Amino acid sequence: MMFRQILIYPAQCDLLRIMWKTGANEEPVIYRLKPVTYGTASAPFFAIRTLRQLAMDESSRFPLASKVALQDMYMDDVVSGARNLDTACQLQCQLQNMLETCGMKLHKWNYNSKELLNSSSDQEHSFSTNAESAIKALNIRWKPTGDYFMFKVSIPSIASYTKRDVLSVIARLNAPLGLIDPVISKAKIFLQKLWVIKLKWEEFLPDAIAPEWLNFVSCLKALEELKTDRYVLTDSYGKLILLGYADASESEYGAVVYMHSVKENGTTTTKHISSKFRVAPIKVISIARLELSACLLLAQLVEKVRPFLQVHLAKVLSCTPIQP
């Protein structure tokens, strides 16, 4: 219902007209649509821009909600949190009040805290009280009870694949933060082979390489066993170090960033934050040049990640390949 709460500027309503007939023998009537309408190319932009403007306009009255709306909202989904229960409650209240000022109502709340879940008096506005349920967002699933991310693979099994089918499988294997990029890059390397042999879109895979792809697809179900912690920090940490690694091979290059937490008692924990992988060009180039590309990719990834961490980092260490 978010689109229907946003009105189009009156002078632009002439550009959104529909024709409607009440009967087969009746003359069509032309209507001008006043709110943002589903199916139009501009609808997502209007929705996002309206929410951003609301957050900026209400930043003084709802500072917590304004910051979250600008940074942690994707379309009409809010994926955010707080460091303690009191702040989380304030954030939830501010988000509800801020959006209600423009006729929008947030619902389907869920939490990784039993205290917050039990304090919710309106069961109608929660996803599910089932402990085994997982919340889907941005193509991954979040398990609130364990506070980790997991994956659901839905790849149809067919006897023979065409080049178009291969691309369709790759398109289904997307996840934020590069959580399964090593798997995706393997599929892209296979797709590159199809370009090299100049296979057409509707042609079936040659017998020589078809078993390789069938074996790859059959192993994708194993991704459902992968679990990634949502919380990349640890309790009572002493210092935080951002670790970055870059490397390259003949077929691909990539970079990955970890959060290295050092507790006050000296124990350490390292958790994945984000990664990026790229398939090497078809034109053969030296490993050294690919390693330089990996170093650039790492530098860009670190600069992109740092502003969103919102924590004090003792060090930022980047580990890059060294040529003998």
Automatic annotation (TrEMBL):
In which domain of life is the source organism classified? Eukaryota
The entry's protein name is Integrase catalytic domain-containing protein
One GO BP annotation is:
DNA biosynthetic process
Q: Which residues form the signal peptide?
A: none
Which InterPro entries does the entry link to? DNA/RNA_pol_sf, Retrotrans_Pao
